[in-house]
Specification:
Rossmann fold, single chain, Caspase family protein, alpha/beta
């Protein structure tokens, strides 16, 4: 198993820590395109995004080490199955096989158990299927068509079983499809094996949000050879776009992280004009028995950024106006040119507006003062008449 950062054991007296368990599976031995494909199995193939996404999340944790968190980074356990190689920085990472996942999970749980204030982070990116339970597919899935689900991970039972873990805050990110295959419909034994099973009398109070890359019955999406849409939005939100106010400070907390990732992905769907059938649908879920828990706390006086998208009503004149942002303190921030404007601004109060030229002179139209908070502010500006002249290119000469 591969511990790419931290100590194999939670050091005694070290205080609360965040322990991350990250799995990215793109290389599947027994699926279409694999080295030993099994006949008569679900029509699934090789993936490029999961190992890239898993590396990106591991790098984010290690880069900042959660230095501003109530539970600073304690360890990062990483498993990959990547057709392009198993490297992470200067380390060769173990394959994400069923056996390796079970073994590494057990080692990770021991670290998580060391302090009730620890934060346990579980991340899986790869193929998934869902019937009555959510099943995660390791590299060696479908070694035998006679017992397809022998090596799969029963995530639904694993989530319930993690109530036995002493870490009071747990975060689960499942960046995988939740479709139902024909094989899953026909097989009575669908589901696989839990990484930890529930046990009567061993149920600790926990705040344990889940974040799914899609809803039941749909695909999750990752761009070829790039970070998946969910993981990219998750990292952006952990970096600051998922922040919320808590008294005098801004924090990333368990209550708002999932919904902010959901909002950010929805914004990306719209801005990129992704067709409806290919849009990512992020679903937050999970327990919150311990109430909201802070994952990061911004330094006093530090402000997170907000994605600000400015357009106007009617949208037909957007290409003829120049948008601007007037903060409560500081100079005006104009858009670099005419047309719709998407930018990042520090959270706070602004007067947004747009300006344009009319025959009688230069006109500026301010909107009501607004308080903008992460992740996205997207409110068009109502522009009364008279409107700027819309420049229509002349028809081509015949």
């Amino acid at each position: 198993m591969t511990l790419v950062w931290g100590d194999p054991l939670h050091p005694p007296g070290a205080g609360q820590r965040t322990h991350a368990f990250i799995v990215g599976v793109g290389r599947y031995r027994h699926l279409f395109g694999g080295v030993a494909p099994t006949q008569g199995i679900p029509a699934l193939g090789q993936l490029t995004s999961p190992p890239i996404s898993a590396r990106a999340l591991a790098e984010w944790f290690i880069k900042g080490r959660l230095a501003d968190a109530p539970a600073p980074l304690g360890s990062v356990e990483l498993l990959l199955s990547d057709r392009t190689g198993q490297n992470f920085a200067d380390t060769q990472v173990a394959d994400a096989t069923s056996q390796n996942i079970h073994t590494a999970f057990g080692q990770w749980k021991v670290r998580c158990d060391a302090n009730p204030n620890n934060v346990a982070v579980f991340y899986f990116c790869g193929h998934g299927l869902q019937k009555h339970v959510m099943s995660l597919l390791p590299e060696d899935f479908a070694v035998s068509k006679d017992n397809l689900w022998k090596d799969t991970i029963d995530f639904s039972t694993t989530y319930n079983g993690m109530a036995r873990c002493k870490a009071g805050t747990q975060l689960f990110i499942i960046d995988a499809c939740r479709e139902l295959s024909q094989a899953a419909i026909m097989d009575e034994d669908f589901g696989g094996t839990a990484l930890i099973s529930p046990r009567l009398g061993e149920h600790n109070l926990r705040t344990a949000p889940m974040l799914f890359g899609t809803k039941v019955g749909l695909q999750a999406f990752g761009d070829r050879n790039g970070v998946s849409r969910l993981t990219e939005a998750l990292i952006d939100c952990l970096e600051g776009l998922g922040a919320t106010e808590a008294g005098a400070n801004w924090v990333i907390d368990t209550q708002h992280l999932g919904t902010n990732v959901q909002r950010l992905v929805k914004h990306q769907n719209e801005v990129q004009k992704i067709p409806e059938q290919h849009r990512q649908v992020v679903v937050p879920d999970g327990e919150s028995a311990n109430g909201p828990q802070s994952l990061r706390v911004f330094p006093a006086g530090s402000l997170p950024n907000v994605i600000v998208k400015l357009g106007c009503i009617p949208d037909s004149i957007e290409q003829e106006v120049t948008f601007f942002a007037d903060p409560d303190q500081g100079p005006r921030r104009p858009a670099p040119g005419k047309g719709p404007w998407i930018t990042k601004l520090p959270a706070g109060r602004y007067v947004f507006g747009c300006s344009f030229d009319l025959p009688e002179g230069h006109i500026a139209v301010p909107a009501p003062r607004a308080y903008v908070i992460p992740p996205v502010y997207d409110t068009p500006i109502n522009v009364p008449r008279p409107h700027p002249v819309i420049n229509v290119p002349p028809p081509p000469q015949v």
